[in-house]
Amino acid sequence: MGTKIKNISNVQSLTVKEANADIDEKWIEFISNNSQATIYHHPLWLKIIEKETGQKVLRLICSDENDNIHGLFPLQNTKGFPFGLGGVPGTRRLASLPRTPVGGPLVSNVKATNLLIKKATDIVTNEPDYLLQIKSFDPNINNGVGTLFKYFWREVYIKEIPDFPDEIRYGKSKNHAKIKWAVNKAEQNNVIHRTAQTEDDLKKWYHLYLDTMRLHATPARSYSFFQNLCEILRPEGLMELVLAELEESDKNTVIAGSVLFFYNKTVTHAFSGSSRIRKHIELRPNDLLHWYAILDAQKNSFKYYNFGEVSKDNIGLATYKKKWDTERISMYHYYFPNPAQFLEGDLDSGTVGSIKAKIWQMLPLRITAKIGQIVYKNL
User: Which of 291, 312, 344, 377 lies 20 to 30 angstroms, CA to CA, from 179?
Assistant: First the structure.
C-alpha cells in the first residue's frame, strides 16, 4: 500500500512555508500521485475538521525554487480536554491530524520529510506543555530526523481485493461459508442494502450511531459533522452512507448503517451504527453491509477495503474484523518532545474506564451527543 520514498540528495533549494486554501488545486494534484495519500489528506477533509472546530488547518508545504511541491503536512492546533484531563488528549497539541485516525507528512523524498518535521518541531519548541503529534502508518518516519518519540497506537484491518472478475474469498472454505450464510440470512429475512438518500435517512442512522457509541462508552461525533460529510464529500464521490433496512409489511426500519470513504484505491469503513434490538442483531445486517461494500469496491476498481482500527482492549471487534481474511497493519503516534509525563501508562484512551463506562451507558442519547460535540472541539 505504500509509496517508495526517494532518498535523493540532488534536490536543491527546498523550502517549507505555510500555504492557504488557494493552493488546494496543486495540493490535490500532489496527493493524487502519491499512493500513501488517504482521504484524510484531502483538502475537503481539512475543510470538514475546520468547520467542526472553528479553527484553521495549518497547511505546510515543501517546494523547490520552481514551486513544485515535494511534500505537504496538514496540522491543526487542539486545546486538549479542560484541566489537562485524559493524558495526551488533555494536552495542547499541534496534531496531524486531530479527530482523524491517520495523517502525517506526505512526501516524494526524505529531504522533504526532514524539512517538514523540522518546521513542525520548531513551532512547538518554545512553548511549555505543547506537543507535536503525528499519526502515521509509517514505522520509520523518524529516520533522518531523530527527534521524534514513537509509540504503537492501534492496528487497522485491511482486506486486499482481487481484480475483477476473480472471486473474493474470506479465508478458508468454512469461514467463507459462515460469512455467506450470514448474508443469505439477512436477505432471506427481507433485509436490503441501499445508500442513504435523504436527511431523514441520516437522522435514522444517527440515532443508531449514538446508541452504538454509548454502548462502547465512546464520545460520538456531532450530527452537524455527518451533515458536512454528506454535503462536502458525497457530491465529489468521496463518501456514502450505506444502510441495511428491514422491509416489513407495515413499515421499513433502518437497522444498521456505515459511513464509507472512497479515495486512492481504498474504501474506508469509517463510522457505523446498528440497532441493539436482539431480533435485528440476529439478522446480521453488518455482515450484509460489508459483503456488498466489498463487492461494489471491486466493481469500481478499488484495491483495498479498510475495516478501520481497533483498540487493543476490544477483542470482540478485532475477532470480527479478522474473520474477513484481513491483514493487520500497525499504526503509530509520534511525538515531540517526549510525552511520557502525559501518557498515564496508556496511549490508547479511546474509551473511558469501566466504572465511568457504566455511568456513560446510562446517559440519555441527547446528553452523550452534546458531550461528544464538546469533546471533539477540544480533542
Answer: 312
